[in-house]
Give the backbone structure.
Amino acid sequence: MTIREAAARLRAREVSAVELAQESLRAVNRQQPRLNAFITITEELAIAQARRADDDFARGIDHGALQGIPYALKDVFETKGVRTTCGSKIFADHISDIDSAVYERLTAAGAVLMGKAGLQEFAYGITCNNPHFGAIRNPHDPERIPGGSSGGSAVAVASGMVFFAMGTDTGGSIRIPAAFCGCFGLKPTSGRVSRYGVMPLDFSLDHMGPLTQNAHDAALVMNAIAGFDARDDTSSRRPVDDYAPAAAASLRGIRIGLPENFFNERISAEVNLAFIKAVANAEAAGAILVPIQVPHPAEINTVSRVILLAEASAIAEPWLHRRADMGADVMALFDQGRLLSATDYINAQRLRRLYQREWAKLWERVDCIFTPTAPITAPLIGETEVEIEGVAEDVRLASTRLVRGINVLGLPAASVPLSSGGLPVGLQIIAKTFAESEVLSISKEVSLLQSGE
């Protein structure tokens, strides 16, 4: 059942918000031992919020499509009175005295919080093999990673525990788990969703966005969470659109850019097959395919790594003396960041602005860009290298290769689940800044073509 379907049933009085919450909690408690999607389950809070939603319905008060809908928050979104761990032993007992902007807005919309979803420690990595709270497991194969760092959020959605979940994306951390788990994930434009009250990994690359079953559900969540917030100095004052994809949307005449460099290199056979089929379906539906050369993709990835290493280490500085309380993987990344010079960091930010200007010229020729989300399907837990076209590649670098640079550019991008016949595969759709509505509409049509409708 989707958000739209559940919202219709709630308003038809076919089900109550409390009944939805109870069913969601049953699903969470049933699957948690196998998948480990949650760090904290907020059962009492969920029932209280559900009762409030039912009371509002009874009084004729309608807060919108999310009223009474169960969801999860990645455990970096601060919640007053509920612990927020950031997946770290250091914050295992941290109880915030503020609510994040996203939680404020979802609460105002009447959504019902089931709990705080697990993640990679400090949201820094893609395996979600957390040394403190245990490995999070892919619902399609529990021996495989869900992707990260928003792995628990993706698992909670893909397994049907909740209707949607919030994630964060610094170098692909929404889109990678969406691709590996077979759900929809949206990284909005930088500044579109407030970062206030979110435990940061990075100063300038973090983005907040939803993981859902489909693009229409993501649009409903974006309608609730997007908008200016004076407490976030990156928050955009640009007016918020209605993100719900138009019912009569079509791919006819849409100019789809297909990169002839970088994004088509070292792609696994199963991912490539699903991607080619999706592109062919779009062309058959009237889309115009435009071969393009994207500027400096490898260099943008390098810029991303420099910025992330430096900024993440700066943020973590107050806790770096507690080495024994951190996993070896994140500690190694923090150590690397401390070795970078100020010159390296400043030059990376200068190059970032240059590359943003060069990519902006692409939108004169195309409306969006299609790429695979990840060049591989979900690796096994503990696997450190994957072989693609006979070349061994580090799992983390391979998984982030096609998504990392989009955070540097600040562009909106979604991962749309594709039919593959095996493990899930994702299609990445990228567009110009603040074009989330277009990304969502195109994503919806791609999904309809996948289902044959």
User: Anything to note?
Assistant: DSSP finds 14 helices and 15 strands in the chain. The longest helix spans residues 297-316. Residues 190 and 410 are 5 Å apart (CA to CA).
